[in-house]
Amino acid sequence: MGTPSPRVVLVLAAALAGLWAPRAAYGQPNFIVILADDVGWGDLGANWAETKETPQLDALAAEGTRFVDFHSAASTCSPSRASLLTGRLGARNGVTHNFAVTSVGGLPLNETTLAEVLREAGYSTAAIGNARCAEGSGAGRWRGDTRRCLCPSLAEEASGTWDTTAAITPASAVSAAPAGTSRVSCGHLPPTDTLACPSGFDYYFGIPYSHDMGCTDTPGYNVPPCPPCPRPGVAARVARRDCYMEVALPLFENVTIIEQPVNLSSLAARYAEQAARFIRQASRSRRPFFLYLALAHMHVPLGGPPPPPASGRGIYGAALREMDALVGRIRRAADSHGKGRTLLWFAGDNGPWAQKCELAGRPGPFVGAWQRQRGGSSAKQTTWEGGHRVPALAYWPGHVPAQRTSHALLSTLDIFPTLVALAGAALPLNRRFDGLDVSPVLFGWSDVGHKVLLHPNSGAAGKDGEIETLRLAQYKAFYTTGGAMACDGSVGPAEHHQPPLIFNLDGDTQEQEPLAVASREYQAVLPAIRRAYAQALEDIATDNVSVADYSKDPAATPCCDARRMACRCPAPGAGPGKNSDAALSLSN
User: Fold this and answer.
1) How far apart are alpha carbons 537 and 467 in whole angstroms?
2) Cα(184)–Cα(172) distance, integer angstroms
3) Which of 65, 250, 440, 563 could be cross-linked to 446 through a Cys-Cys bond (beta carbons 3.0 to 4.6 Å apart)?
4) Among 305, 245, 321, which residue's Cα sits nearest to residue 581?
5) Cβ distance 41 to 391 under 8 Å?
């Protein structure tokens, strides 16, 4: 290999100097990770021309880099989000399927999260939104040490009444955490008790699980719909079997329930307000920050006024516009404290929830045609492209190239190692990671991601969390297939394939026609697929793996006041949890 010319060396040196100049001037970069729930690849206008409801996201894509071959780590909520926070698949971190409202456990304590690594590196950290997917039903995660939970309310932090030097482990917290549990449910504890924040976050504001997993007085849209929470003296409406009517949906600030039931009509605006406050306060502190914003959108649309007639996609389109406006407000808040100081990374947690019919998102061209012909959905819960190929983009002015489309094979698993590297921190020892540091792809120096990417079973077929689908370059191999529940109620049966079904996605994005087993192409790629599959399984089998506690106990359900119907809280007076029917503006 020849020696590079002096001119090439100078160009590379200038590029590196430009990249790291802000770090020298301002310190470590800030990070905002926004994760949308059940959003389809085709729900981003920049991906799919038919979508008109995402002008803010489309502007971010135009001013940053759009990733078109980007995948969630699983095709359902809890495993996907736990993998984002750990950089490890559920087969390693133990979170292989969804937690329930009554779940006792959560992410195993021997797993180290992105927030914990960044906090050790000097970052202020906050989680806003849906925390259920890594934590079980409670808002707290027992750490088993004597470190003070760095979880003031925003009012405490702003007024200076919170003692950041205290090292407190409340007796009530100790008694509430039996040996071997992953976390405790803190909703029933008095507001004066302090427990560790979820997964190493200094501040938390949000709901502990999806917004359709508890009743509200302002129920969101659903198919079929669920009634409001029951009230004393009011005849209860008959609810279908999968409506959650016994306990109202709680809203937490740190480990305290501040509203139950939460007002869904104002939830998006309240998330935006709390996120903007955290960005503002972290910026004033001159510490770098990490904000993890796990949106309630899209899932099923939140409650709100009927969409205008011109919205095109009706209720779902109106909800998509609301999510887009929220993202736009977060971007403006970050830019207002120094444009170019913050990397914003947007992605989906899995594909659209097809059984919700007109309230589900668009998978774009990734329709899983082979599966559709045999029944069931090929989106959320499946290992078809529609289940895990999600919209994703990165925005970081001056660092991430604008108007760029990357075709690198990437995953939400990559967020952990990439942000750790950009922060100048080190990955935790004694474990292996499925994610890659993809900084070269972010900066436009490379368009090479994973050579092999694993897709775990996520509910439609096979044992949850097991690896029976993998990607090798443009080839995708299925050892098990199956369809989730579709809009028409059909479910595709599980089928096992030996030898595997293999699709060439370069010419078959719809996954319509597998390669013929006897074909030259199939026979040429099969040995490489078998080697990659065997190596992946061996790597997991010889790793330090965790086991999550999936036991359930009704006492673990977050409940503000068990004496009141549906665990209703007394009406709050003021502060972030104020129960107001008026939604805050997202246009600020």
Assistant:
1) 8
2) 11
3) 440
4) 305
5) yes
Q: CA–CA distance from 214 to each of 227, 301, 568 (Å)?
A: 11, 14, 12
Q: Is 506 exposed, middle or buried (0-12, 13-18, 19+ CB in 10 A)?
A: exposed
Residue 332 contacts residue 325 (beta carbons within 8 Å): no
- Over the stretch 159-198, which tens digit does the pLDDT of each residue have? 544 433 332 222 223 233 333 333 333 333 333 233 335 5
Write out 252-314 in H/E/C secondary structure.
EECCEEEECCCCHHHHHHHHHHHHHHHHHHHHHCCCCEEEEEEEEEECCCCCCCCCCHHHCCH
Q: What are phi and psi of 110, to 5 degrees?
A: -80, 0
Pick out the chain residues at pLDDT < 70.
1-26, 132-198, 235-240, 304-312, 571-588
Amino acid at 496: H
Q: Which of 351, 385, 380 is nearest to 368 (CA)?
A: 385
Burial letters for 277-290: b for 16+ Cβ neighbours within 10 Å, e otherwise?
bbbebbbeeebbbb
List, as own/partner pairs, every contact residues 453-456 make where C-beta atoms lie below 8 angstroms and the sequence separation is at least 24, other chains included: 453/71, 453/409, 453/411, 454/89, 454/536, 455/71, 455/74, 455/75, 455/383, 455/388, 456/73, 456/74, 456/79, 456/89, 456/90, 456/91, 456/96, 456/383
Question: Is it true that the peptide bond before 261 is cis, omega within 30 degrees of 0?
Answer: yes
The rounded distance, in Å, linking the Cα atoms of 279 and 288 is: 10
Query: Residue 336 is encoded by which pair of tokens?
Result: 């207002």
Please, is 462 exposed, middle or buried when counting C-beta atoms within 10 Å of its C-beta (0-12, 13-18, 19+)?
buried
How many whole angstroms separate alpha carbon 323 and alpha carbon 265? 13
pLDDT at 225: 87
Q: How far is CA 384 from CA 279, 350, 356, in A?
A: 37, 11, 18
Q: How far apart are CA 173 and CA 184, in angstroms?
A: 8
**Residue 298, preceding peptide bond in cis (omega within 30° of 0):** yes
Distance CA 140, CA 184 (A): 6
Distance from C-alpha of 66 to C-alpha of 46, rounded to nearest angstrom: 8
At residue 359, the 3 state secondary structure works out as helix
Burial classification of residue 541, based on how many CB atoms lie within 10 Å of its CB (0-12 exposed, 13-18 middle, 19 or more buried): exposed
d(Cα 25, Cα 20) in Å, to the nearest integer? Answer: 9
